Q: What sequence folds into this?
């Protein structure tokens, strides 16, 4: 998790390009409000079609 903290500034939301914030067990996009789980220390930056639709409705 320390390695992820060090490199957080080079990661961006794959959906909107927004800044990601590290939470306890996921990354959170401040711009589109999507959550990306962290599994075994690896962020799962995969966007499903349903998440994209749901995220765009919040704007």
A:
């Amino acid at each position: 998790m320390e390695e992820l903290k060090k490199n957080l500034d080079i990661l961006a939301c794959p959906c909107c390009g927004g800044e990601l914030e590290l939470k306890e067990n996921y990354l959170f996009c401040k711009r589109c409000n999507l959550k990306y789980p962290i599994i075994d220390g690896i962020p799962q930056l995969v966007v499903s079609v349903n998440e994209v639709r749901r995220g765009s409705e919040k704007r």
Helices lie at 2-7, 49-57. Residues 2-57 form a domain with the N-terminal domain of TfIIb fold (CATH 2.20.25). The chain is about 25% helix and 25% strand. The longest strand covers residues 35-39.
